[in-house]
Design brief:
The complex is a heterodimer.
Chain A: H1 3-40, H2 60-66, H3 76-106, H4 113-122, H5 132-141, H6 148-171, H7 176-184, H8 189-200, H9 202-218, H10 221-226, H11 235-240, H12 250-284
Helix pairs in contact in A: 1-12, 2-12, 3-4, 3-6, 3-9, 4-6, 6-9, 6-12, 7-8, 9-12
Chain B: H1 2-19, E1 33-38, H2 43-60, E2 64-69, H3 71-84, E3 90-92, H4 96-99, H5 101-106, H6 114-118, H7 126-130, E4 133-136, E5 141-144, E6 147-152, E7 155-159, H8 160-165, H9 177-193, E8 199-201, H10 211-222, H11 240-258, H12 273-279, E9 283-288, H13 292-295, H14 301-307, E10 308-311, E11 324-325, E12 327-332, H15 340-350, H16 353-362, H17 372-377, H18 389-398, E13 401-402, H19 411-417, H20 420-431, H21 435-451
Parallel strand pairs in B: 1-2, 1-3, 8-9, 11-13
Antiparallel strand pairs in B: 3-12, 4-5, 6-12, 7-9, 7-10
Chain lengths: 286, 456
């Protein structure tokens, strides 16, 4: 076999190997999602059947979830509202605290500002779950158990260090000369922050805002621990109640889960370009 | 300019904190009663407690803040709540008698509710009452730290059409321990012969939740191991009778699994999964702690009255009745509750026989009453037309029964939490240990646990 043929053969083997691995990975990734959709399109009695393809398809589970006509979904839209409230508030507060902090450290050059950035990142040394009991205790002392504000406070605490880090790195790419020019024109620091710093930080803002929103949207542990009543729980905690029944309403559970997954998917695909540029910027600077 | 801005930021943060309403909470005597209750398996169970709380609100004029959450979530949240001291006033946990109350009582974290028990002491079934008495290490005495509101024992559920399809009838089902379970292996063989992919036995064998523990301990008692802990709280696991019973129980549970008479997934089953496998007709029979399997199908009369069979646990191999282990689902009041008086008043009202009976009937009687007067005075419980309820009453309340060993020593609660015996089953099925080796390993671990719980 000539060297050229040998190289072509090797390339084909490599391509075939890549294709096989790709197919396995695709199937591995898609099967759970397929099952989720399959179960959501079946009747309650059929969901435990072992058939790969459903014999009959129905949108009944989606109708049930949309109309809250099953007892475990009685507060579905209210819980969705709570999830939105928590998610949007966490995103807003994370952006507010993160940008103000990065602006103060990076642009106003406060002494020992680097310590704040590093200290914030140090908080990631402790896993979220380890802090559950201390947070529960703190929220109890402030009378915030069973109050969405408690979950917001926790989520902001966990999202902010990463936000500060990314904003700090991203902000370093914005020339300081712009600030100086604005100052010469008489701009105050708040004006520089609002009119120069924030507009130029747009990709990072989108990325971190989406990150904070998704972090709280998918959060279960703290929402479960800190919220109790049906009036205050989020959708993930509400769906957790399905795992305690003698019946098997998995079709309702899956339909509700799919509906719950739609808003973050829509947000992600709307902003994904800006999100990836915002996140990668933090990785190459600094 | 920089300094002004920094001050502004600090002032802004302070304003934000003030505006968010952060302030310390102060309890007042007139606070409402905060109640945490285990979520039911179906809507009627939740509605029954909602109705009961509303009724008490009307008569007492005290508001009840009721939160219903699923069983395992409630246990986790209660552990966290007791750790930080921010607790509800009254808790009902279906598995509290096993996983929460014994060790919380030992640690002096529960309010003594003997005064509540005393209001109805003569009404309670003795075994139910025994299940509410626990040891307090600080006070060095046993007392009542829980109030039983409902109880249950292990039952057997089976599909009659499957048994008939295999060529048998109800009367062919043996009445003694080993023969009983062997029968369902034969049923499986017959059904497999007809091309049906079903399993004869729906044993729960997971190292989680309560069902697998219920099953092992029923087998332990059936094979003579009831004396594993003595009434004085001492561990008696070195008694050869107990060791032999534990080994036999492990063998009798794991051998059918290894031979393919139990679904392979049973080693991961949560408490509802055997029910779901039953409904999917993947298994012919399953042991279950309540009659919830049948009750969940009450709207389907054909299934409820004709197809699902409920039986009590079989007799011992010697033909004599085996005591059933009666578990109670208790209410309790954690120390640190802000309205203990309100909680006690609510509980005292709730356990009045008529109130408790009404509540249990509204839950569709998944659980059994803890008061014999309910059974005697209300024909509902022994209605011969009902093929499940009267069987459960007979098995749990009329035949001989015994309390769980946590009432003697809370160490056994840790044994259950750590799933020592289910882990021993896993050692046999997954790690190819012999039943005897797995038993010895479990015994070693149990002894270590009991070392931490020495009763004076």
């Amino acid at each position: 076999m000539s060297a050229g043929s040998r190289a072509r053969f090797d390339r084909r083997i490599t391509d075939a190997g890549v294709a096989v691995v790709s197919v396995v990975l695709i199937v591995w990734s898609i099967v759970p999602l397929y099952n989720m959709v399959r179960v959501s399109l079946q009747e309650k009695e059929d969901v435990l059947s072992s058939s790969v393809f459903p014999t009959t398809l129905t949108l009944n589970a989606f109708r049930t979830a949309l109309h809250e006509s099953y007892w475990l979904l009685a507060n579905f839209w209210h819980q969705m509202g709570t999830s939105f409230y928590i998610g949007i508030t966490v995103a807003f507060l994370t952006l507010a605290i993160g940008t103000l902090t990065s602006f103060t450290i990076g642009r106003m050059r406060i002494r020992q500002g680097w310590m704040l950035t590093n200290a914030a990142l140090l908080t990631y040394m402790i896993p979220m779950s380890f802090l559950a009991i201390p947070f529960y205790s703190i929220m109890g002392k402030y009378g915030l158990t069973d109050n969405p504000l408690a979950v917001i406070a926790v989520e902001v605490t966990f999202a902010t260090p990463y936000a500060i880090f990314i904003f700090k790195q991203y902000g370093a790419s914005i020339p300081h000369e712009l600030d100086e020019a604005a100052r010469i024109d008489g701009a105050s620091p708040p004006q520089i922050f609002l009119r120069i710093y924030l507009p130029l930080m747009a990709p990072a803002l989108v990325a971190i805002g989406t990150y904070a929103l998704l972090l709280s949207w998918n959060e279960y542990l703290y929402a479960f621990l800190l919220l109790s009543s049906d009036a205050n729980i989020t959708v993930p905690v509400g769906l957790g109640k399905f795992l305690n029944s003698d019946e098997a309403p998995w079709n309702y559970l899956m339909a509700a889960a799919i509906i719950y997954a739609l808003p973050p998917m829509a947000i992600y695909y709307t902003v994904r370009r800006k999100m990836s540029s915002g996140l990668t910027m933090g990785g190459v600077k600094g | 300019m920089t300094q002004i801005s920094r001050r502004g930021i600090i002032a802004g943060s302070a304003a934000l904190a003030a505006g968010s309403g952060l302030r310390a909470r102060h309890a007042r005597a007139a606070d409402p009663v905060t109640v945490w209750w285990t979520q039911g398996f179906y809507e009627a169970e939740n509605q029954a407690v909602i109705d009961a709380m509303k009724a008490w609100e009307k008569t007492s004029g005290t508001k009840v803040n009721l939160t219903i959450m699923n069983g395992s979530d409630l246990v986790s949240k209660m552990i966290a709540a007791m750790q930080v001291g921010d607790v509800p006033d009254l808790v009902h946990s279906v598995t509290g008698d096993r996983f929460l109350v014994p060790r919380a009582a030992w640690d002096d974290k529960l309010v003594d509710v003997s005064d509540v028990i005393d209001t109805q002491r003569h009404e309670f079934h003795q075994t139910a009452l025994d299940n509410a008495r626990f040891y307090n290490l600080s006070l060095k005495k046993y007392s009542y730290y829980a109030v039983p509101v409902k109880c249950s024992t292990l039952m057997e559920e089976a599909w009659r059409p499957m048994i008939e399809d295999a060529g048998f009838s109800d009367s062919d089902i043996p009445k003694t321990q080993d023969a009983y379970y062997d029968f369902f292996q034969v049923v499986q063989e017959k059904l497999r012969g007809k091309g049906k992919r079903v399993y004869g036995l729906g044993y729960s064998m997971a190292t989680k939740e309560a069902d697998s523990g219920n099953l092992f301990h029923a087998f332990l008692v059936a094979h003579g191991g009831a004396g594993i802990v003595l009434p004085n709280g001492k561990l008696n696991v070195d008694d050869p009778t107990v060791k032999q019973a534990a080994t036999t129980a492990l063998e009798r549970l794991t051998t059918p699994y290894k031979k393919g008479y139990v679904p392979p997934g049973a080693i991961n089953w949560g408490d509802v999964d055997n029910n779901n496998a039953f409904f999917a007709r993947q298994i012919v029979m399953t042991p279950n702690a309540t009659i919830s399997i049948a009750v969940a199908q009450m709207e389907k009369p054909d299934q409820y009255y004709k197809q699902i069979i409920t039986q009590g646990m079989p007799n011992g191999n010697d033909g004599k009745p085996v005591p059933s282990i009666l578990g109670v689902s208790p209410c309790f009041i954690p120390k640190g509750a802000k309205n203990i008086d309100g909680a006690k008043a609510l509980l005292t009202s709730f356990i009045q026989p008529d109130n408790l009976n009404k509540y249990l009937k509204e839950t569709r009687a998944r659980y059994l009453p803890v008061m014999m007067s309910n059974i005697k005075n209300d024909p509902y419980w022994q209605d011969p037309a009902d093929p499940h309820r009267s069987v459960a009453v007979e098995a749990g309340l009329i035949r001989p029964s015994m309390a769980w060993w946590m009432t003697y020593n809370p160490a056994y609660s840790a044994v259950l939490s750590e799933q020592i015996w289910s882990q021993a089953e896993a050692n046999v099925t997954q790690k190819n240990m012999t039943a005897e080796q797995a038993m010895e390993e479990a015994v070693g671990r149990i002894k270590a646990i009991f070392e931490r719980f020495q009763i004076a």
